[in-house]
Amino acid sequence: MFGSIGMPELIIIFIIALVIFGPRKLPELGRSLGRSLTEFKRASNDLRSTLEEEIRVEDTPVAKPPKPKAADPAQVPGNTGTGA
């Protein structure tokens, strides 16, 4: 989950945070960080789904209207078929 950060590194980070922020402020900081991560994940998932939907809409072929058939010269009104 944390990549190359192991347990010793996490303990050192926790101790530094405890010294900087104090024991009373640390739980509030953790909750705030958790909410921020949740909001970031939600926003990135919304962006991903929007992009996938847009790509899917662009890839969907548009139905072409049927071509009109050419009229048979014998069925054209006013054509006597004599050529004169």
From TrEMBL:
GO terms for cellular component: membrane. GO terms for biological process: intracellular protein transport; protein transport by the Tat complex. InterPro entries: TatA/B/E (IPR003369), TatA/E (IPR006312). Residues 51-61 have a biased composition (Basic and acidic residues). Residues 51-84 are annotated as: Disordered. The keyword Nucleotide-binding does not apply. It is a single-pass membrane protein. Its main location: plastid. It comes from the Eukaryota. It is found in: Plastid, Chloroplast thylakoid membrane. Keywords: Membrane, Protein transport, Translocation, Transmembrane, Transmembrane helix, Transport. The chain crosses the membrane at residues 6-23. The keyword Protein transport applies. Pfam families: TatA_B_E. HAMAP family: TatA_E (MF_00236). Part of the twin-arginine translocation (Tat) system that transports large folded proteins containing a characteristic twin-arginine motif in their signal peptide across the thylakoid membrane. Involved in delta pH-dependent protein transport required for chloroplast development, especially thylakoid membrane formation. TATC and TATB mediate precursor recognition, whereas TATA facilitates translocation. This is Sec-independent protein translocase protein TatA. It comes from Geodia barretti.
